[in-house]
């Protein structure tokens, strides 16, 4: 059977781009030319032998490209796609592919019209098309559809993965998987209200939608947990990574002109749950961070239900702890709360002897016992999921895991240390690992632990600032007397000094500068900023200020640090900030060394 690129396929696509989104678009076969990565997606030029158009493949097809299923110079059939304007270049178009299939592997060369005639490379599309108007096609499909499905066929539903800020009109079909409370705010522009929802489509892709003021009041009661809606006339922008709660590069804003329509019962769906698992031995980097993580593990033990009194309202709530293990030979305790503790928690207790595999989505990582996990209101627990990860984990556990000695991810961490050592022994690096990787922290701050010596503290640097005793924010001298706090909007006769300083640290692999703030700097210097300032003001033969700084140097500490990127004079630089400081626990250091020796012996 002959196969080929669709003759004049791109011309047909461009001619039909003005049709409304409900139109059925023809399936065409094109050649992939100049395939290259762009972020987490791939771009290419779609070639039909006569014309080319820029195109983008979704991140969901990355695995097909890596595996070689879709190749440069190969042929693909476009099943679902949209044509959009390139921002700033209204005459240029690009195709956003949402669904396609591979037709042929890489050809010897790029297909051109004159080459096709001479070589006889003729490719036939999957279907022969009869020229019909878009309305004819839709009417035929409506006539064959069940009455309940006809409403859904009047619109073209876009998958969430295909949306971008430059797209025109779109309609999505999503389920509300989390609904926030209505919040009020006050800023320079006045007072307002806001709330957000988390939306999930049938493929499991999620996005956060936010509504302000009139839109918030209009849609707050309309959105109900678990219900499915058609949504259109919203806008997208890049997500603020500091506040986003779902894995999506974009966030959605709905205004009072947006359309939200509840789907009928026949159009309901249960979204596929997508996981992004973090191995247990890598959980240390997420301790006390805003990121929510997914984990998969074999159940080792399940505790009975216990009642915990909540601090804010003294209400008694149920809690149950389960211990999970994975192929990293580490275990972690997961706390199930409320209905998860009494419902799924009881199921797990009944089947604990069989050591089921469970996958949990959206967990918060805390520092109790070094590293611990807790469910939140939107956490989702799946017992014995039907996934490759679960099958692999169960096979490992049955073959060798059940006889393997496991250790808790938090073991070896000092329980007395408040902040610095909460994960000092799970993600330890040398300074050279940071200094030799200048791109670390480009997308978001990354966290490490390191052991190093304070090698130098510059004495003439600005080591502190004047702070409000109430909120610790910076204050300025008032016109008459005292200090004015802009944050508290009040004047006080006194203020306090708080550290903001830079220290140089060294280890066996190199050295670098760290930024340290008040609580961490106090542990390094050994006194408060007010006390150090008093020493600096003293006069005498012995400079107590210099002596104090010298005493702090060449002392060894465990540091919890974050690495991020900041721009200075149009140049990006690493900023390494101390998040915690802890004294050396030599017993824990010894256990860490023994673990490393054991790993090296095993690998050999």
TrEMBL record:
<comment type="function">
    <text>Component of the replication protein A complex (RPA) required for DNA recombination, repair and replication. The activity of RPA is mediated by single-stranded DNA binding and protein interactions. Probably involved in repair of double-strand DNA breaks (DSBs) induced by genotoxic stresses.</text>
</comment>
<dbReference type="InterPro" id="IPR047192">
    <property type="entry name" value="Euk_RPA1_DBD_C"/>
</dbReference>
<dbReference type="GO" id="GO:0008270">
    <property type="term" value="F:zinc ion binding"/>
</dbReference>
<dbReference type="Pfam" id="PF04057">
    <property type="entry name" value="Rep-A_N"/>
</dbReference>
<feature type="domain" description="Replication protein A OB">
    <location>
        <begin position="287"/>
        <end position="384"/>
    </location>
</feature>
<dbReference type="GO" id="GO:0005634">
    <property type="term" value="C:nucleus"/>
</dbReference>
<comment type="subunit">
    <text>Heterotrimer of RPA1, RPA2 and RPA3 (canonical replication protein A complex).</text>
</comment>
<feature type="domain" description="Replication protein A 70 kDa DNA-binding subunit B/D first OB fold">
    <location>
        <begin position="158"/>
        <end position="262"/>
    </location>
</feature>
<dbReference type="InterPro" id="IPR031657">
    <property type="entry name" value="REPA_OB_2"/>
</dbReference>
<dbReference type="Pfam" id="PF02721">
    <property type="entry name" value="DUF223"/>
</dbReference>
<keyword id="KW-0539">Nucleus</keyword>
<feature type="domain" description="Replication factor-A protein 1 N-terminal">
    <location>
        <begin position="5"/>
        <end position="104"/>
    </location>
</feature>
<dbReference type="Pfam" id="PF08646">
    <property type="entry name" value="Rep_fac-A_C"/>
</dbReference>
<keyword id="KW-0227">DNA damage</keyword>
<dbReference type="InterPro" id="IPR012340">
    <property type="entry name" value="NA-bd_OB-fold"/>
</dbReference>
<dbReference type="InterPro" id="IPR007199">
    <property type="entry name" value="Rep_factor-A_N"/>
</dbReference>
<dbReference type="GO" id="GO:0003677">
    <property type="term" value="F:DNA binding"/>
</dbReference>
<keyword id="KW-0233">DNA recombination</keyword>
<dbReference type="GO" id="GO:0006260">
    <property type="term" value="P:DNA replication"/>
</dbReference>
<keyword id="KW-0235">DNA replication</keyword>
<comment type="similarity">
    <text>Belongs to the replication factor A protein 1 family.</text>
</comment>
<protein>
    <recommendedName>
        <fullName>Replication protein A subunit</fullName>
    </recommendedName>
</protein>
<dbReference type="GO" id="GO:0006310">
    <property type="term" value="P:DNA recombination"/>
</dbReference>
<dbReference type="InterPro" id="IPR013955">
    <property type="entry name" value="Rep_factor-A_C"/>
</dbReference>
<keyword id="KW-0238">DNA-binding</keyword>
<keyword id="KW-0479">Metal-binding</keyword>
<dbReference type="GO" id="GO:0006281">
    <property type="term" value="P:DNA repair"/>
</dbReference>
<dbReference type="InterPro" id="IPR003871">
    <property type="entry name" value="RFA1B/D_OB_1st"/>
</dbReference>
<dbReference type="Pfam" id="PF16900">
    <property type="entry name" value="REPA_OB_2"/>
</dbReference>
<keyword id="KW-0862">Zinc</keyword>
<feature type="domain" description="Replication factor A C-terminal">
    <location>
        <begin position="447"/>
        <end position="593"/>
    </location>
</feature>
<keyword id="KW-0863">Zinc-finger</keyword>
<dbReference type="InterPro" id="IPR004591">
    <property type="entry name" value="Rfa1"/>
</dbReference>
<keyword id="KW-0234">DNA repair</keyword>
């Amino acid at each position: 059977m002959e196969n080929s690129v669709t003759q004049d396929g791109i011309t047909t696509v461009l001619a039909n781009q003005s049709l409304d989104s409900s139109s059925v678009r023809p399936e065409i076969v094109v050649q992939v030319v100049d395939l290259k990565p762009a972020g987490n997606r791939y771009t290419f030029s779609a070639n039909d032998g006569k014309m080319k158009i820029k195109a983008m493949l979704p991140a969901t097809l990355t695995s097909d490209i890596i595996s070689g299923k879709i190749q440069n110079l190969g042929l693909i059939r476009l099943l679902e796609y949209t044509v959009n304007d390139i921002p700033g270049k209204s005459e240029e178009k690009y195709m956003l592919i949402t669904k396609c299939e591979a037709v042929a592997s890489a050809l010897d060369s790029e297909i051109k019209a004159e080459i096709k005639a001479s070589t006889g490379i003729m490719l036939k599309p999957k279907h022969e098309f009869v020229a019909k108007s878009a309305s004819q096609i839709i009417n035929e499909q409506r006539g064959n559809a069940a009455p309940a499905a006809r409403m859904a066929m009047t619109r073209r539903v876009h998958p969430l993965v295909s949306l971008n800020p430059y797209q025109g009109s779109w309609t999505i079909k999503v389920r509300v998987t989390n609904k926030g409370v209505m919040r009020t705010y006050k800023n320079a522009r006045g007072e307002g209200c806001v709330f957000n929802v988390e939306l999930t489509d049938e493929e499991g892709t999620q996005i956060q939608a936010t509504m302000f003021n009139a839109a918030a009041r209009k849609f707050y009661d309309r959105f109900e947990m678990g219900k499915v809606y058609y949504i259109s006339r919203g806008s997208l922008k890049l997500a603020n990574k500091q506040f986003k709660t779902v894995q999506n590069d974009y966030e959605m804003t709905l205004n009072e002109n947006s359309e939200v329509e509840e789907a009928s019962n026949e159009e309901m769906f249960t979204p596929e749950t997508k996981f992004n698992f973090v191995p247990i031995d890598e959980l240390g980097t997420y301790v006390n961070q805003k990121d929510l993580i997914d984990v998969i593990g074999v159940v080792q033990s399940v505790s009975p239900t216990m009642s915990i009194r909540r601090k804010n309202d003294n209400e008694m709530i149920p809690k149950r702890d389960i211990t999970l293990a994975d192929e990293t030979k580490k275990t972690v305790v997961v706390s199930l709360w409320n209905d998860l503790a009494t419902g799924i928690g009881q199921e797990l207790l009944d089947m604990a002897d069989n050591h089921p595999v469970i996958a949990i989505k959206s967990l918060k990582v805390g520092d109790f016992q070094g590293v611990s996990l807790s469910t939140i209101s939107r956490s989702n627990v799946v017992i014995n999921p039907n996934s490759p990860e679960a099958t692999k984990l169960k096979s490992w556990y049955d073959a060798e895991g059940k006889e393997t000695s496991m250790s808790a991810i938090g073991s070896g961490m000092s329980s007395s240390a408040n902040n610095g050592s909460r994960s000092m022994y799970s993600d330890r690096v040398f300074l050279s690992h940071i200094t030799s990787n200048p791109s670390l922290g480009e997308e978001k701050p990354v966290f490490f632990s390191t052991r190093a010596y304070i090698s130098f503290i510059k004495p003439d640097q600005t080591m502190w600032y004047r702070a409000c005793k109430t909120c610790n924010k910076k204050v300025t001298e008032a016109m008459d007397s005292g200090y004015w706090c802009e944050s508290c909007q009040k004047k006080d006769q006194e203020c306090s000094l708080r550290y903001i300083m830079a220290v140089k640290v060294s280890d066996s692999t190199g050295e670098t500068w760290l930024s340290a703030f008040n609580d961490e700097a106090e542990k390094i210097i050994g006194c408060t900023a007010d006390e150090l300032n008093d020493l600096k003001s003293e006069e005498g033969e012995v400079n107590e200020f210099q002596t104090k700084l010298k005493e702090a140097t060449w002392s060894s500490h465990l540091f919890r640090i974050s690495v991020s990127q900041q721009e200075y004079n149009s140049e990006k630089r690493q900023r390494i900030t101390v998040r915690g400081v802890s004294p050396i626990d030599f017993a824990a250091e010894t256990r860490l060394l023994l673990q490393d020796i054991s790993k090296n012996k095993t690998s050999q």
